[in-house]
Amino acid sequence: MNPHRELYNSHWTPELAKVIAESPPTDKLVAGVMVEDWEGAERLAAGEPATGEMIFDHVGLRGPPGRLHGGLHCLIRTIAILRHIPRNAGIELFPCAINVGLGAALPLGKSVPFEARFHNTDDGWWFTSRFNETDRLQAAAWSIGEDQILAPEALARWKSRFEKAHESEQKKVLRTVGLPYFGTDELCWCATNKPASEGGTAYEAMHRFVAREGFYGPSLICMYLDNAGALTRAAYDTMTPHFTTRVSLKIAQPYIPSSERLLFLGDRAGRVPARFSRARPITLAGKEEGTETSEVLMVNEDFSKVYAHGWVDTHPIDIKRLAAELPHE
Hints:
Blueprint: H1 3-8, H2 14-21, H3 26-31, H4 41-45, E1 50-55, E2 62-63, E3 67-68, H5 70-82, E4 96-101, E5 111-121, E6 124-131, E7 138-143, H6 152-166, E8 172-176, E9 179-183, E10 187-191, E11 210-212, E12 215-216, H7 218-231, H8 234-238, E13 242-251, E14 256-257, E15 262-267, E16 272-273, E17 282-284, E18 287-289, E19 292-300, E20 306-316, H9 319-325
Antiparallel strand pairs: 1-5, 2-3, 4-7, 4-13, 5-6, 6-7, 8-9, 9-10, 10-15, 11-12, 12-14, 13-20, 15-19, 16-19, 17-18, 19-20
């Protein structure tokens, strides 16, 4: 066992994994995080500042070690609030773009305050939020056209690279969060369903993301693209867990047919230093490692439909600092 990963997962017991596997669907848990009946939606729809509180009190929302899962930040801090705007306001939430900074953790089991603003014009809408009274937890979302998600020529390049990587004899396999991830020097990826040669059925872990009969919800998009971004370096290079520090996604639609074999891809070869990171680099195996940005993509198996595209910033964990922060018995 890698000592870094062992420490990171020290509170991730088989019993806890079983509880999470038996949890209600993740999108249902997300819908229940608002404290009491939130009265700020009308103010938000009217263009006025609104405040509220959330509490993340279910273990199914957990990301080790004991905080809100990084991939859920971009859903909970944007779409989960926007969905409270009355339907008669005539707001179309998708397609949209989301940019979420994760400069601090959101704890489980504690009430967390937030403030939000929303503005709607003839050209579209935009939204901002700020959590836990810190600028380190700011988020934004805005409306976009579906043609802004990914250019056709860029999609063609992704498809060509995937086909080459998929046939590579050098690809490595890592099983995490219930799915097998494959990696080459170029890409890492996972699929929601087994290959046709193995029956084509959905992996068992996918039941957590069924938001309505026959459809996965937006938590699948956010969590698995976050995973793909982190694994572009964490799983195949440093073998050290990473924290997500920023997620920027363009999402076409919130609900996706569960009958489709979906692919989540991360660009390993195209990683670049993150432009706006304030996190201090740490030394791993004698090499200084800082925050990096990885491009990610969610498509169906034949690349005929793009569901989401974006970038994920990740930073290697300072193991000594983490050890000091974890509770000790």
